[in-house]
Amino acid sequence: MKNFLFLAFTFLLVSACSSKKSLISKSFEKQLSSTFYKNQFTGVLVIDAATKDTVYNNNSHKYFIPASNTKIFTLFAALKALPTQIPTLKYIETNDTLYFEGTGDPSFLHPYIKDSTALNFLQKHSNLVFVSNNFQDEKYGPGWAWDDYQWYYSAEKSGLPLNGNVVMICKNPELMVSPTYFKDSVLELRHKNNRNETSNRFYYPQTKNDTVETPFITSDQTTRSILENLLFKKVGTASIMPSDEKQTLYGTNADSLYVRMMHESDNFIAEQLLLVSAGVLTDTLNGKLIRDYILENELKNLKQEPRWVDGSGLSRYNLFTPQNMVSVLDQLYTLVPKKRLFSIFPAGGLSGTLKNRFVGDEQPYIYAKSGSLSNNYCLSGYLVANSGKVLIFSFMNNHFRASTSEERSRLEQMLLILRDTY
């Protein structure tokens, strides 16, 4: 009798689940077969986080330009490679001289993270020598738009970034410039650009009052000069570190960088996190080293091999499938406690880039990363259904000509169906 009751209960449970999936499938098929989706490419995969059962699948094996959904892979790489505290400097102290090199740590005096661990450490030493040969990467990622050089989201990569590699300019009521090293390089006049293309000459109209955030051109000499301006002392340079064992100085909590990267879709932090991860792995700051390592070791069982060329998703050369995204999200769900994981991702209607989107009734039901480039919009993450069950999803939309707001609106309709039905 007990066996019969158990089998009957199991049958009812399976039937109910099958009925829910059928309702979701019919609703999604109706939406995706509409004329709105006729001239674009769309891929969808939704799975149950607990059972791993597929709830809905459409073109999930096909490649899409992910935009900032790429940061999900960057987050995974950083969580696998980095300790709780970010390595901020490596150094060797010989006699009365401190030789130091960057780790790629983006938090060093970052305008929003504001970590001063490295600065305070350097201030304690009289004779400083900066070594930069461990940075073996390009300033820009492959496929980045060249004419984005003046916009905050396209700051250059470097081995020892300072102030997020951007100049912050505002009036309060006098002209305020950070880093102060660049104060004499700011002209108060109207110009079509925020900065010269080939030099660190910046423009700030006299009538402007808000803060302008503009990337500066990095170089070893510029890094040295900014440091000297901050420390009020000379900084020497050397081509290589001494042969002694390097020591590591640790700085900010890693989660503060992960939250900033995911909530604000901070491209600079994403790129630098790959450099820091590569440095921990190999002692060389090169993003390709960590990307290759993660794909060949931690993600070798992905059903489709991604084309992963940067940390931020600025490049249209990146190619990922919805199955790729869901697989990594699934691994993150296993790797990181749910409360911490959901705090790293933007919450619909509550935080980050989703603060005004995908709003829940009383509490968030979406914890996800959006990704947008012109004519492309993707959203991948976690959905908490009204039943309490967690779904892992990836919606990837490429090459549409309608507005992104309309694309999001239609996506929200499908997400609400998942929330209310499953």
Automatic annotation (TrEMBL):
Q: Which residues form the signal peptide?
A: 1-16
- Hydrolase among keywords: yes
* Gene Ontology molecular function: any one: serine-type carboxypeptidase activity
Q: Which UniProt keywords apply?
A: Carboxypeptidase, Hydrolase, Protease, Signal
Cross-referenced Pfam families, in alphabetical order? Peptidase_S13
Which PANTHER family does UniProt cross-reference here?
Answer: D-ALANYL-D-ALANINE CARBOXYPEPTIDASE (PTHR30023), PENICILLIN-SENSITIVE CARBOXYPEPTIDASE A (PTHR30023:SF0)
Family (UniProt):
Belongs to the peptidase S13 family.
Query: What is the name of the protein in this document?
Result: D-alanyl-D-alanine carboxypeptidase/D-alanyl-D-alanine-endopeptidase (Penicillin-binding protein 4)
In its UniProt entry, the species of origin is given as Maribacter caenipelagi
Q: What is the lineage of its organism?
A: Bacteria, Pseudomonadati, Bacteroidota, Flavobacteriia, Flavobacteriales
